[in-house]
Amino acid sequence: MISISEAISIVKSNSTTLLESCYKLVEKAGGYILSEDVKSPINMPPFRQSAMDGYALNLHDDLTYQLIGEVKAGDALNPPLKPGEAVRIFTGAAVPDAANAVMMQEKVENQGKTINIVHQIDLELNIRPLGEQVKTGDIALKKGTKLTPAAIGYLLSLGITHVNVYRKPKIALVTTGNELVEPGQDLTYGKIYESNSKMLLSALYNLKFYDITTYKVEDDYKQTVSTLKAAVDENDLVLITGGISVGEYDFVGKALKILEVKEHFYKVAQKPGKPLFYGKKEDTQIFALPGNPAAALTCFYVYVYIALQQFMNREALELPRTEGISRSTFKKRGDRPQFLKAIYNDGQVDILEGQNSSMLHTFALSNALVFMPGELNVISENDKVNVILLPN
């Protein structure tokens, strides 16, 4: 059995970055990382653009201007303006070539056919210049940029429809157990509803990982071997829940040995999630998570999250941590470090009841985990605690 810090270090040192590139539709590329620079095919804005509703002016020495027309957003008009002439203009509209300032409407007195300016005018006032954001041929976004909603909008505003991005991992979710039935079916005596796969699927979707295949395997040795072989052969990351302990019907560990998966560690000195396995076969990483739901989800956030971030070559591999002041008292049993379900708000932390590894009802309320070191037996009110912020 190894320590938490050792386990984290092993996952970090064995996680790999996916350097393969794929071509994605921009609107479906959210959360991906650009695998090459993206150059702008146009100037943005592609014309001199009004930043205000107001009046485009060809400046002269007087404060009165003749109003000769109107330009709306989307109009392909370029009226010639003599000095002292103006057109009504709206935000986003193309500023006529002859105009050299736009005065907002609130600072203009409209007299019908003439307008009077009641504020100082500066050259190029309220005009967005051609190519202010980016010029044709310039780099719009650099290689390595994560595509956020703003980045997606920016690329689409340049007319870019496809980009080259780093491929995201193919992920397998394998659930084991004869006792599991699908929600919606009748719950007969001795059975429980299967929740781990959908829970982890939701966690992966929340992190923008979508290429996921789910597998269900009963407590049967041959079926476990064949299912895990398919999962390992066809995916970059395999997440298994249950079957990793040493009971007579826990076949996952035996199957991984037969499949020649290299074990990097098995069992971590922690609570929940002691029976955690991590290994690799060639470039495929395998996590065998505990079957208890709260333990499985805790291990996902503490360990699997690291591998997922490394796949995408992100700098921050672990979830963010901060300090908080406990508003609760908690007494720990035993000497293992513990991850406690908690609610963090503005520096204050409430450690919740129901910390058992099988209990999800308090995890459902949590937005954080409090890390309680092994040497600490009690957390009291007003104690400083180490807080892991969950990506909810």
Automatic annotation (TrEMBL):
It comes from the Bacteria. The keyword Transmembrane helix does not apply. Pfam families: MoCF_biosynth, MoeA_C, MoeA_N. GO terms for molecular function: metal ion binding; molybdopterin molybdotransferase activity. CDD domains: MoeA. Residues 172-310 form the MoaB/Mog domain. Catalyzes the insertion of molybdate into adenylated molybdopterin with the concomitant release of AMP. This is Molybdopterin molybdenumtransferase. It comes from Pseudotamlana carrageenivorans.
